[in-house]
Amino acid sequence: MSKPSPISGFPEWAPPQRMIEQYVIGRIQRTFELYGFAPLETRSVEPLDQLLRKGETSKEVYLVRRLQEDPGGPTGDDALGLHFDLTVPFARYVLENAGKLQFPFRRYQIQKVWRGERPQEGRYREFLQADIDIVDRDTLPAHYEAELPLVIGDALSGLPIPPIVIQVNNRKVSEGFYRGVGLTDPDAALRAVDKLDKIGPDKVAALLVETAGATEAQAKACLALAEISAPDGSFADAVRALGVEHPLLDEGLAELVTVVETAAAHSPGLCVADLRIARGLDYYTGTVYETQLRGYERFGSICSGGRYDNLATAGSATFPGVGISIGVTRLLGLLFGSGELNVSRSVPTCVLVALADEEHRPASDRIAAKLRRRGIATEVSPSAAKYGRQIRFAERRGIPYVWFPGADGAVDEVKDIRSGEQVPATPDEWTPPVEDLRPLVS
Amino acid sequence: MSKPSPISGFPEWAPPQRMIEQYVIGRIQRTFELYGFAPLETRSVEPLDQLLRKGETSKEVYLVRRLQEDPGGPTGDDALGLHFDLTVPFARYVLENAGKLQFPFRRYQIQKVWRGERPQEGRYREFLQADIDIVDRDTLPAHYEAELPLVIGDALSGLPIPPIVIQVNNRKVSEGFYRGVGLTDPDAALRAVDKLDKIGPDKVAALLVETAGATEAQAKACLALAEISAPDGSFADAVRALGVEHPLLDEGLAELVTVVETAAAHSPGLCVADLRIARGLDYYTGTVYETQLRGYERFGSICSGGRYDNLATAGSATFPGVGISIGVTRLLGLLFGSGELNVSRSVPTCVLVALADEEHRPASDRIAAKLRRRGIATEVSPSAAKYGRQIRFAERRGIPYVWFPGADGAVDEVKDIRSGEQVPATPDEWTPPVEDLRPLVS
């Protein structure tokens, strides 16, 4: 075998980075559980026809098949693909298991997803997402749309990362406004406005005229709407000042005011109403969310989602939902790239038990076993090299303590190899300072 | 969308089962870390040619390609497949990153793998494995082969599952013995003996004659070897009593005695030498492990591995390793099937905050926020239904406590809905009994 090389778009963190990732996932998971979300994992594959229901993402799907497929036989698969998000599999799971679930159903799901996108900074082909969703049967109360950003704010605020801002909009505001100004193809208008960040207002105006049948005045109104942004309910006054009327607009404004005002009361500065947020076309029907990491705005949203009323629907059964997804790999990729996150050592090990000679390995093993039973991560030295080399083994990994078994019944000693301090110790009693017990993320 | 149905071989646990799985994974992970194994995750895909290096597994590989592959373009992939185990990707990772790693390198890896096997009880197409491996540069000390089963014993012994027995053999014993009796194709002999459990001794004897060129007497000797089993070093005497001599046999016996005696000293009853264990052909060159769950022997090994000297080799660089892998999904599938594992509730939630009317939602939200800040998982009632209905909402999910906000400045009360006991409480002070704080696995 020749030396292998990485595959573009499929990141692999080194163990210290993986420790940071586990810390971040643990914090997110713990927060989700504090809000009562139950854990779920769905299979990695879905029937291809389900993945292709939404045209926008179809070009990114990975197809999966057995190398020696056996189409005529009893194990012949229908075509399968890897899931490209966790929302489509969740909606399928809800439909499949509706009879066994309690509604409203709150679940979190932290899993890899795959997209055949062109790899670039912040964009991967295999990446980890952490999702929460709430679905209900038939109808879903609007207060859940206000709750989800607060959960995300809590989950991310405890981490050593830059602050976030969640930008919120509501599809009903955009669609109601577009209809209110007299546009008949609000989807085309949404698609055009969605390009605002990329191509700027002049080209969006031209696109509105060209693809959405807008007049110059209508295009100008759409752009004026997209420019509105506020950290509180005052955005609604700015919208009304544009003089457009539509029942759907009123409904959307009321919902969006609730989301923004609830957030302002609970976590000032966390959410802003930003009426340019569109979230592609996807499956959203109400509130939509995007999230900027301050200082990393150019890499796009690290946490997105929204309300979907029609994703989980079979016959007369319908399960409207709202969800939001943290792009864990994107978030970590950006922060690893800028050296924002560090861990105090490259292994979990707190103590290395030294070895006088190979005959004494069982004695060192017993010391290690005692320390482990007391929750102290411990390794025994790989070989009975000179003590200087054994200490360097620990040093290179950041292991803070080396344990020297006492010869011939003498008491053991433990050395803090950072300070050089060495003290007598017994494995049934010695305890490291709590900050040394596990690798620290900062 | 019509009601979807499951895909055979791709299990999905319900949230209560997923909570049990998380508990099991957490316990395994914590034990691996106590032994100083660092975490690693590799990408899910490997170049297909790497996955096909071992003929035995090639028929099980899943091929992955972008639906709209673009072979001429800059993003054209080489053929990729999903990994079928975690050892082959780990060996590749070590070769790719050898310059950045510290050796000996201890890592654990808990990830999904995929195999296109025919699904049946205990066999899946997508399943979770939990691996530990130790690799070193150039040479790997034999004491690691004795350490790994002890880690597994520790990891699984703390779980509410039946006891395990790790069966250990050594490829050198088998190969040395076969050569010692005069067989020239030890691989063919190993393949034949590997079928002992499936086809019985008579057919294995016939196969040895037919495929490994054995005489009746040689076949009989091979079967006599395979029948030897002991919980301590006495197995070596039984082997020597068969009167076969070979240097490789001596080497293997010495290694296997160390593994079994170390285990007997540390964890009596955990390991037995069982000379019929072959582990297919794969990549093993020394010690091999299989593990039986008592009472579930018919479903095969739930934890397997061995030593591999030649898996991670590129040019003159060689990284011998030893590893062992817990089949988490198989283990859980068996135990879920027999109802051996239970969890005390179906959601993480400990407290449901009741809602007098929708106007008081912010007040109930504030109570929930205070409880969460103190580590108590809390939901607010989805609607201001009658209190009886809100209590039933909690009951159906196994949520033990319902919190009633005091009206008009009166003190709040909290009800244990199992006993009916209701007491005054404030969200800054009330604490549930520790056994109610999180769902309990038993």
UniProtKB/TrEMBL annotation, chains A, B:
Alphabetically ordered keywords of this record: Aminoacyl-tRNA synthetase, ATP-binding, Cytoplasm, Ligase, Nucleotide-binding, Protein biosynthesis
Domain Aminoacyl-transfer RNA synthetases class-II family profile: 104-348
Keyword ATP-binding: yes
Molecular-function annotations in GO: ATP binding; histidine-tRNA ligase activity
GO BP terms: histidyl-tRNA aminoacylation
A GO CC term assigned to this protein in UniProt: cytoplasm
Pfam families linked: HGTP_anticodon, tRNA-synt_His
Superkingdom in the source lineage: Bacteria
Positions with a binding annotation for L-histidine: D85, L86, T87, R115, Q129, D133, R279, Y283, Y284
Record note on quaternary structure: Homodimer.
Record's protein name: Histidine--tRNA ligase
Organism whose genome encodes this protein: Micromonospora pisi
Phylogenetic classification of the source organism: Bacteria, Bacillati, Actinomycetota, Actinomycetes, Micromonosporales
